[in-house]
Amino acid sequence: MNPYRIKLLLTTFTVLMFIAFPGNAAVWTGAFVFTCNDQGGAGNLVWDTRPGGPLDDVSIYVPGPGPGGLVRVNGPDDYHASINVLLRPGTNVFHIFGQGGSTFPGHGAINLFFDSRITPAISVKRLVGASFTANSSPNTFDMNGAGAPAAGVLEYDNGVEIVKVIDFAWAHGGPGTPNYSGHIAIAVTPKPNILSIRVAEVQICWYSETNVEYQPVYQSEFTTNIWMPFGPPILGTGDRICIRDATPLDEPKRFYRFIRSEH
After folding, report:
1. Cβ-count burial of 151 within 10 angstroms (0-12 exposed, 13-18 middle, 19+ buried)?
2. Which ranges of 33-160 would DSSP assign to H, the alpha helix?
3. SS3 label, residue 202
4. What sign does the dihedral 35-102-75-49 (CA atoms) show?
5. Structural domains counted in the chain
6. Contact 184, 164 (CB under 8 A)
7. What region does 38 belong to: left with phi over 0, alpha with psi -120 to 50, or beta?
8. Are 59 and 98 in contact (CB under 8 A)?
9. 69-83, 148-162, 249-263: least confident range
10. Which segment of 62-76, 107-121, 214-228 scores lowest on mean pLDDT?
11. Which of 30, 50, 150, 198 lies at a C-alpha separation of 20 to 30 Å from 59?
């Protein structure tokens, strides 16, 4: 008996494919902006984008050919207009404005709502003299105005895109004005969809000799590199013979050969 030569090294591989799903892009559908304490809990001033809500409304603008280089997203002023903003891939910058009457406590926070969901998807706070961070306070708002915990994260994943707050500021305008203003920058990154392409079956062919028996064997990491038979011995016919072998999903590679014996 002697081994026939090795016929095949089988490997599997993964291909990255980027597929766009424009119909599933994230939509910004609501905001609660509020002054907050050091822990991010809601303070005494609250603004929201609920249509006809009892709270002060928050005005949201984007850069454009309007007064002061801004175009209003919701309005007009004091209209309590809702928002329905389709976020584009890249950085989306919004300017925000609200009327108030107090400088206490000076810290600002915002809950963002996407895709018409009621619970906050992103919650941000910024304390005076500090950088913005995720807000994890249990004392904030849902989109109905009821008490709800903050999201505690700066990112929202809708399965198609990653939406992330990369900057936020909200502060009182200073002496002589009751108004608050600020901005928020939201980065949108489409997610890659990873498709795994693999060989599920291999065909092995060779030219056989008459009166010679061939036993197919294979070797892999799963067999601890020991040659293992698969299928029954095959008697040569003098013609080309082909056999098939199914490959397990999690087996990275196989080596094949044949043990031949004369009859």
Report:
1. buried
2. none
3. strand
4. positive
5. 2
6. no
7. alpha
8. yes
9. 69-83
10. 62-76
11. 150
DSSP strand pairing (2-3 vs 13-17): unpaired
- 9 and 61 in one domain? no
Strands 107-114 and 27-36, sheet pairing: antiparallel
> Do 168 and 53 reside in the same domain of the chain?
yes
Q: What share of the chain is helix, strand, coil (3-state, %, to 5)?
A: 5, 50, 45
What are the structure tokens assigned to 150, written together? Answer: 């903050």
Residues, the chain? 263
Q: 28 and 11, same structural domain?
A: no
Verify that 206 and 253 share a domain, yes or no.
Answer: yes
Structural domain boundaries enclosing 76: 22-191
- How far apart, in whole angstroms, are the C-alpha atoms of residue 165 and residue 94? 11
> Which residue has better confidence, 79 or 130?
130
Name the nearest CA neighbour of 172 among 212, 211, 128, 141.
128
The long-range contacts involving 18-25, CB below 8 angstroms and separated by at least 24 positions, are: 18/190, 18/192, 18/193, 19/193, 20/190, 21/160, 24/158, 24/159, 24/160, 24/161, 25/86, 25/87, 25/88, 25/160, 25/161, 25/188
Helices (H), 37-190: none
Which pLDDT does position 1 carry in this prediction? 45
Taking the whole predicted model, whether its pTM rises above 0.85 is answered as: no
Residue where the block lists tokens 């600020």: 182
User: Do 128 and 47 sit in the same domain of this protein?
Assistant: yes
CA distance 34 to 26: 23
Question: Is residue 126 domain-shared with residue 220, that is, in the same domain?
Answer: no
Within 10 angstroms of residue 111's Cβ, the number of other Cβ atoms is: 27
The whole-angstrom separation of Cα 9 and Cα 4 is: 15
Which of 195 and 203 is assigned the larger pLDDT? 203
